[in-house]
Amino acid sequence: MVAGSFASTFHGTPRTTQDVDVVVVLNRQSLTQLLSSLPDDAYYVSPEAALEALQQRRQFNIIDLATGWKADLIVRKPRPFSVAEFERRIRATVLGVPVWMASAEDVVISKLEWASLGGGSERQLRDVVGVLERRPRDTVYIAGWVQRLGLDALWHEAQRLARPAGPT
User: Which helix (H) or strand (E) holds 160?
Assistant: First the structure.
């Protein structure tokens, strides 16, 4: 599932980014298959870092040697929000390529969470505002997760800054 800045750009205000975040569900066998499908002369990936990411439910990256583009593969965590976010992903087309994309609501929630962790909080909040201004959304769903994840203050700030996108 495409997430992060690509997803917030898809649903909201475009901005440049250096990589693409992709949430993946992997086991050791599917990870091995993925790694073996990437030619060494075309991609850089550390098999050790990938295996460690799988074991610790973190992320690892793959770099396209021809372009320098980086894909951060984020191993989906078993926590309730991560599972719900993945189950709610939507089909989308980006540059003519069909992909699974995080929903607008889940992009808002995950960006609020990143902002709460200090991960470029101003930029994350701008991304949230961009989504809120451009997409109708299920605010009841968002508010439920915001409360469960303790993101109320950031959610209220984002709502204050955003111009309405239309009916919710």
Answer: helix 152-161
Helix (H) or strand (E) holding 159: helix 152-161
The CA distance from 25 to 77, in Å, is: 9
Reference 24, options 59, 71, 75; nearest CA is 75
Mean pLDDT estimate for the chain: 93
Backbone angles phi, psi at 111, to 5 degrees: -70, -40
Q: At residue 28, what are phi and psi to the nearest 5 degrees? A: -60, -40
Q: Is the pLDDT of residue 166 over 60?
A: no
CA dist 19 and 59 (Å) reads: 13
Q: How far apart are CA 138 and CA 99, in angstroms?
A: 22
**Tokens at 14, concatenated:** 């475009």
Give the DSSP letter of residue 57. Answer: T
pLDDT tens, position by position, 101-150:
999 999 999 999 999 988 668 889 999 999 999 977 788 999 999 999 99
Amino acid at 85: E
pTM as predicted: 0.90
